[in-house]
């Protein structure tokens, strides 16, 4: 559909403000003119819609014709083959009908039923109009059903539809809107649908109708006349049109492009809002993104718009580097059709690391010593990637000759020309907020490797070459971006590098400082062995602009002697021979933050003690020193968790693990789980809930009991809340594990209600609709 502005009629726009009461003499005439103009707009829009529809239908018909042609040709071939067969068989006609089909046809023709059975079993029954039917089979009586049984429909809602507990009827469905206008949720069951009055039903608006409404009102302005006319043309009520327009206004991002554009002006945090809510924070933090693509070979371009492939002209055209063997050796670049490879449609080759590369990666992680096993955190990946990018960093030194074919300028001049060109072409200022945020994230994760940034975080919005140019020709802005918080991205007003050589030099120096410091930080962050060096350790605390958190490794607030051992281990050049992978991760964790060591199970394997009986359980959780748990059929319900070996009272059994999700998300999931009558949600704190449904250990199968043999405890471990399950009493091998889910009495399901709990059933039902039952520690 063409732009609404093309149709904009100035006098019609004025009609938007025309109210129904017009007082001047010229008014009736003006109103008539306005009416006709509005009608014109609507008609032309309708015509456009119709024309588009015609084209669409024609296209569809043509597609169908092509599909059908295949089928009919086949059928035709078969029928010809069959006829030929008849001819071959001496013209004998074959009866291809089954007896039942023939009977039905005969019955219709009023003929007596053909009987090929001459067995004397002529049980002929006369039906209605005297049609004789042989072997009459009485019809099957289907049981009469008054109401169709209830069903449940789940519908994903648009987060812009802000409504509360309201119910909106769409067709015959009843939709419950999420309290927070959330993007998902909803349930409708047909039981209630049945109660919806027929007259309440509203005809849904088609997309074309929406377009007409929106475009007309955008062109003419909203007014009663416009609503009336639209109602007439679309066979609706004016109030419906008005209501629809209001709804369209609120949810204006009706097409994908608009949606994307609206996100582009948000910062990453806001744009990711729902992402953060939906996914487990811990998984994201620990594993990073498994979809990150690394580079197999640093010298191979990452895609058609890799900076190694070529560059952009001042006009924004991509010039591809010519092969050295080209006869046009003096020209280093050739033009490529921007239609063939759109600038923003980079589709980097999906190369996954080769087995050898993977091996190499593992090997390099092992670099810290034999005892340090592989730990695949995002930080590790980043470290590996940053290493590769530093190798790659200066592999392409742009010169004026490369940029401007045939130029005879001196190298210095050419570099300047190059800078000036790209300073303008890759105007970092013009990048959208989200693009800058993504770029910043990429910079943090991958360093200044434009290939990795473009392919992993820019999502095709910026090519590798564009990222490269920003990195190299807007360094001052990049530096600022890196050193400042994401909130200040919009206020970035770095000096344009192209303006002066002097600035360029300063920026270059500044950049190298930042990146130098960053790479040092990375080394500290991920190479645990390096922590043994005092100079490096000092640097950890010297890095002022890193966000520092006071961390203690196990989160326990008491100071035990073993903590000092651990501290010494981490910071004092002591090498512990058999540190496990978990220890290595724990140490990596320590090194990622500014650490205050106050506790730890220094024995790193056998339980540490404080006084006579103190045992730091947090460290056991951190080191995953848990009991073996078996899965089996439960005494009470479904599956249950069983202990393999006997344990003593208060012994740590294991962790209740799961996805770390927000309460908002848990409420949504809880509604589904409640329907299944099986919930793996565990309230962690007022921010997060653990959901073990998809991810969890066997301990998630431990069932509820009011008189349990275990208990759950929320512990602060390495800065995170985690849930440990402990033995409440001595438990012998093979016993099933139970703990008290501690559901709130009014929300507890019947099987979890305590005998003394006098809350009425209705109360429980009422409250469970407003909140899920919460498993508590
Ligand atoms: C965390 S799961 C436990 C594993 C579950 N038995 C299974 O087979 O998946 C919790 C669910 O188990 C069931 N459940 C747990 N304890 C129960 C009990 N004492 N009586 C009845 N059902 C119980 C409930 O359906 C509850 O939602």
TrEMBL record:
Residues 356-365 have a biased composition (Basic residues). Residues 334-408, 748-777 are annotated as: Disordered. InterPro entries: EZH1/2-like, HTH_CLF-like, SET_dom, SET_dom_sf. Residues 376-388 have a biased composition (Low complexity). Pfam families: HTH_CLF_N (PF25996), SET (PF00856). One of its GO terms (biological process) is heterochromatin formation. SUPFAM superfamilies: SET domain (SSF82199). SMART domains: SET. Residues 754-764 have a biased composition (Basic and acidic residues). Residues 627-742 form the SET domain. GO terms for molecular function: chromatin binding; histone H3K27 methyltransferase activity. GO terms for cellular component: nucleus. Residues 398-408 have a biased composition (Polar residues). Gene3D superfamilies: SET domain. Signal peptide: none annotated. This is SET domain-containing protein.
